[in-house]
Amino acid sequence: MYKVLNKKGKARRGTLQTAHGLVETPCFMPIATKGNVKAISVEDLKKLDPAVILGNTYHLMLRPGEEEIAQLGGMHRLMNWRKPILTDSGGFQVFSLAKIRKLNEEGVIFNSHINGKEFFLSPENAINIQFAIGSDIMMVLDECVKLPAERKYLLESVEMTTRWAKRCKEKFESELEKKNIIGNKPLLFGIVQGGLEKDLRMKSANELEEIGFDGYAIGGLSVGESELEMYEVLDYVAPELPEDKPRYLMGVGYPHQIVEAVKRGIDMFDCVIPTREARHGRLYFMKREEWKMEDSEKFYQTINITSEKFKLDQTPINEKSSFDELKNYSRAYLRNLFVNNDPAAMRLATLNNLEFYLNLMKEIRTQLS
User: Fold this and answer.
1) Inside any domain, residue 276
2) Omega prior to 64 cis, within 30 of 0
3) How many domains does the chain have?
4) 49, 88, 267, 342: the active-site residue
5) What is the pTM of this model?
6) Radius of gyration for the alpha carbons in the chain, expressed in angstroms and rounded
7) Of the candidates 242, 271, 300, which is a domain's last residue?
8) Is 235 a catalytic residue?
9) 146 and 45, same structural domain?
10) Alpha-carbon distances, residue 58 vs 66, 87, 98, 218, 353 (angstroms)
11) Is residue 221 part of a domain?
12) pLDDT value at residue 95
């Protein structure tokens, strides 16, 4: 399923076969949390041409709901999207929605942020919902712990995350057998936790490898620690993960963080940064035509398009873009759209930033060829 094509140091270029097509790695996955990437259409997304996108089990469980998604034929049919979809299990919401959830051995009780209705998400339910979604890459249910955290709590969390991972694997295999899925089957990834404690991270990685998964994610980072602390965790965790399986760093990050993680052996990424910051007028651009992953100098820059200095700027939003709108509309025009709260502003900015991130990954793959 996963094949390493080339290596430079610890950095890898590879391919991951899924039920809906081949994914070239390293890759970035735009976030379609509720079944769509915010501010753009699926047709826009197709032009951007990411190899895989990410949906969220928790949010899709709330709306439209497991039964409705199944009746609609899954997320691929609902979105008219024919390429791979990875789904987060809802583990991040254990972290982000801590004030409206209760956690125990059996799973997580959420009070919906929409209407307060109570929902229960167990490891088994998380797998069922991801099957209903039609996910190509499913994630086990885990607990993402905010840092800093006490060691005692981290240890208990790691042990429970391992037990949950085993329950997810058992449910996943029983569903494959029940549905008689043999070829083109979905993949299941385990998630390494353990905060900044090296021995707990190693314990988590080793226990998950013993259970056996199609890929391994590193979770619980970019949740309060410094960049250097994150890199240190990657330095010792990535080599511990199987060489012949993809490695996914969840929720990271800024462009330079992605490059640093690739250099440490990470293959897959997702993050809200390009889309969320686009909606607030922050645009990403390359600083120069050519750059190397080994360079220490920052290779990109950002601008705040709502700034007064762009009020009369007639230069294109992005003259190097493949989108006519970004090449032909001026920065003054985009600023005016933002000032007037026109939804078109968010679309144009989102296209710019996602194109930047996806082109960054293409360049990384080229440098690893």
Assistant:
1) no
2) yes
3) 2
4) 88
5) 0.96
6) 20
7) 271
8) no
9) yes
10) 10, 10, 13, 19, 26
11) yes
12) 60
